[in-house]
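S1.2 Input.
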Amino acid sequence: MAVLVLPSCTVRHSPEHTSSRPPSAWTSSFRLPLPFDAYKWNPRETWLRERARHLLAEHCLQARGIDLDLPGATPEPPDSYDNSRRYGVGDIRAASRFGYHPPEMWSGGQPQWAERLSAEEEAALYGAESDPGCYHQADSALSLGTPAADTSWLATQSSRTLLRSSATAEVNQARSSWSTCMKQAGYAYTHPDKAIGDPQWDLDSRTVTAREIETARADVRCKRSSGLLRLWHTTESAAQRRVIARHRAVFESLTANKQAQLKNAARALEVRR
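S1.3 Output.
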């Protein structure tokens, strides 16, 4: 079996084709928007908050006599939530490049940086029993004056709409058609989870086989030809709209909380320039 090893700076499909674009810069154009997205933190909002958090933490460390540069800002990411892998692989471009592996595996950076911290720096940044640390102080500043919001409730509802939509008769029928399509292509999987979770792919490593890419591409094609991707997404979108209609006050609090934190982040970045 041919094996393709994905290094940290390039992704190799075959000896004849090598991408010069770093995997960390990968952005899927296949977004699959869902109603809950507006209430979650999208990549750009998270990026903005993290910039402010790092800046506030650096000033906190300096006040303690510790001169430490936290990881620099990454390129500004998209301002939309990425659901391209919510129903398994759905982006043919990503499948052709990464197979079933999540592209973010190659982003790197933070873990290696954190491993180089001294004991004193780690305690000052992350805190100890007697001192919550500079990240805690930064988080408190960013949360100052923000209304309460139950983000864990939203995460639970998001999981439930995925499971409930997956169990509908229409989606089950489309999934059966997907399985038939995969079998005709030479892959005996009864469920998309079985395909992406096949242990032969070794998703904990950065090694992607040619067969993995071929299987992932067939998976995407069968999701589209069977209507599974479209139907599952449509069914879950309707389910999420019903949840929003039943719990408007909860969703309004999520919006207010996020907007307040983003204002605090923008203010911190402006003041600390």
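S1.4 Remarks. The mean pLDDT is 87.
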